[in-house]
Amino acid sequence: MDAFIDSPLNKSHRFERKAEDLAKCGRFDEAINYHRKAKECLLEAKQLTRSNSAISSIEAQINFHENQEKILAHRQAVIRSRVDAYKEKQQRQLQQQQQQQSRKKCEQQMFGKEDRNVSSLHSKAIFRNDSAQFENNEEVEIEQKIYRTIEENDSLVQFLICREDDCCASSPKDDSSKSGAMTLSNYKTGNKVPKDDKTVIEELRTNNQQLRELIHELIGELEKLRKENSDLKNEVKKCREEQISYIPELPPLEPPNLLY
Ranked by mean pLDDT, which of 46-50, 127-131, 172-176, 255-259 comes out on top? Predict the structure, then answer.
C-alpha cells in the first residue's frame, strides 16, 4: 500500500494539485517548480511501464505540465510588467507632486522677497520724497538769500560808484543833490545806505563771505543728491535682476520604497 502511495504516478498527481493551489495564490515560481517535479515523476513512471496506452497517457500528462509551466511563466511576466508599470506611474506622480511643492515654495520665497523689496523701496521713496521736499524748501531759501545778498552788493557797489562821481563833480550843490537823490532811490528800493566807504567795503566783504558759504552749502546739497540718485539706480537694477533670476534647481528625488 505504501509503495502504491509513493509511486511516481501518485507523486506527480500530488505535485500537480500543489501546483494548482500555489498558482491560485499567485505564487507562480513555486507552482512552476511543482509542475517540473510532477513532470519528473511522470518521466520516471514512463520508464517503469511497457503498456503503450499507459505511455501515451503519461506523455499527455507530461505535455500538460510543460504547457502549464509556459502558461504560468507568461502570467508571471504579465503581472510583473503591470506591477512595474504601476510602480513607475506612482513614482512619476510622486516626483511631480514633489516638484510642484518645491516650485511653489520657491515662488513663494521669490514673491515674498519681491514684496519686501517693493515695500522697502516704497518706504524709501516716501522718505526721500519728504526729504526732497524739505531739501527743496531749503534750496529755495538759500537761493533767496543769495539773490538778496547779490542785490545788497549791487546797491553797495552802486553807492561807491555814485560817491566817486560825486567826488569828481565841481559843484557842492550838485554833490548834495546827487547824494540826496541816490539816498532817496536807495530807500525806495529797500537797500542799505552806508555812511562811508569803509563801512561799504566791510559790508561787501561780509556779503562775499556769506555768498561763499551759501555756494559751498549748495555744492554739498548737490553732491548729496547725486549720491542718492546713484543709490536709487543701484537698488532698481538689483530688484530687476532679482525678478528675472531663474528658479534654483530642484534637489534630486529619491525613489520611494513601495511595498506590495
Answer: 46-50
Q: What share of the chain is helix, strand, coil (3-state, %, to 5)?
A: 85, 0, 15
**How many other CB atoms are found less than 10 A from the CB of residue 158?**
15
Q: Is 7 helix (H, G, I), strand (E, B) or coil?
A: coil
* pLDDT value of residue 67: 92
160 or 250: which leads in pLDDT = 160
CA dist 229 and 21 (Å) reads 87
Distance CA(225)–CA(132), nearest Å, equals: 9
Q: Which residues contact 65 (CB under 8 A, 6 or more apart)?
A: 16, 35, 36, 38, 39, 42
Cell of 171: 559843484
| 143-156 confidence digits (pLDDT tens) | 677 777 777 777 77
CB 7 within 8 A of CB 29: no
Nearest to 16 by CA among 66, 74, 75: 66
Name the burial class of residue 51, with classes exposed (0-12), middle (13-18) and buried (19+) by CB atoms within 10 angstroms of its CB: exposed
Q: Is 244 helix (H, G, I), strand (E, B) or coil?
A: coil
Q: Is 258 helix (H, G, I), strand (E, B) or coil?
A: coil
Query: How far apart are the C-alpha atoms of 61 and 35, rounded to whole Å?
Result: 10
Taking the C-alpha atoms of residue 78 and residue 69, their distance in angstroms, rounded to an integer, is 14
Neighbour count for residue 121 (Cβ, 10 Å): 15
Question: In angstroms, rounded to a whole number, what is the distance separating the alpha carbons of residues 256 and 39?
Answer: 42
d(C-alpha 125, C-alpha 232), whole Å:
9
Query: Residue 50 has what DSSP assignment?
Result: -
pTM over cut 0.70: no
